[in-house]
Specification:
- This protein has 199 residues and is mainly α.
- The chain has 2 domains: 98 residues, Fumarate Reductase Iron-sulfur Protein, Chain B, domain 2; 70 residues, no CATH class.
- Helices cover 54% and strands 0% of the residues.
- The chain is globular and about 55 Å long.
- The protein starts with 19 loop residues before the first helix and ends with a helix.
- Bound molecules: iron/sulfur cluster (2 copies).
- One iron/sulfur cluster binds next to helix 6 and helix 7.
């Protein structure tokens, strides 16, 4: 008998989240979620589906079926490169890219993204920097991302950082927008209020 064992876990109906699909469908871009016919066009046109743990077609199916934990913890939503191929080609006019964004936001709200996965950490640091200074401050953003996800890589990345600094592609200090940066925070808060009103 082979020593290789494959574990299969079957999810029970009561473990699914029946409200998950509706909550995603209610977000901008999610309106056609229920129209998916599982044709697989999105997966076949997606340039990065090869590297995803679930293809875009499966993500749509699992979202509709209420597999909230699996969808939010998947690497798929973070590997999506926002190229919009799937959205353009979907025969049911489903905005797959926007759904990926909605899932990313939800994963960040619920903190269920893969541990030490750099993309959500990078996104958070980016938003933090923009909210605070009105600028993206790449150097600081990337430094925090590395420290929070793979601190041992810091030394390896220092050479690259130095080259970028010397070529003027990255700044050392903190850049701030002209005027009052709190305007950005107030603007974003207003967007959130408006978004909540539409749900
Ligand atoms: S292309 Fe559209 S209809 Fe086809 S599987 Fe993807 S989301 Fe569903
Ligand atoms: S938008 Fe994302 S999911 Fe859609 S094809 Fe591009 S990379 Fe794939």
């Amino acid at each position: 008998m082979s020593s290789l064992q494959i574990q299969v876990r079957i999810k029970h109906q009561e473990e699914l989240d029946p409200d998950f699909a509706n909550s995603i469908a209610a977000l901008p871009g999610g309106e056609n979620l229920s129209r998916c016919i599982q044709c697989g066009t999105c997966s076949s046109t997606c340039p990065v589906s090869l590297y995803m743990d679930y293809t875009p077609r499966r993500i749509i199916a699992m979202t509709r079926a209420g597999f909230k934990q699996e969808v939010l913890a998947s690497n798929t939503i973070w590997l999506c490169a926002s190229c919009y191929e799937c959205t353009v080609d979907c025969p049911r006019e489903i905005k797959v890219t926007d759904i990926m964004y909605a899932l990313k936001r939800r994963a960040m709200e619920e903190k269920v993204y893969p541990k030490r996965f750099p993309t959500p950490v990078l996104a958070k640091e980016f938003f933090k920097s923009v909210l605070k200074t009105g600028r993206s401050n790449e150097g600081l953003t990337v430094t925090w991302m590395i420290l929070k996800t793979a601190p041992l890589n810091m030394l390896k990345q220092m050479g690259l950082g130095l080259k970028l600094l010397l070529r003027g592609r990255m700044a050392l200090g903190v850049e701030k927008m002209e005027g009052d940066p709190t305007q950005i925070r107030r603007l974003m808060e207003q967007v959130e209020v408006e978004e909540k009103k539409t749900h």
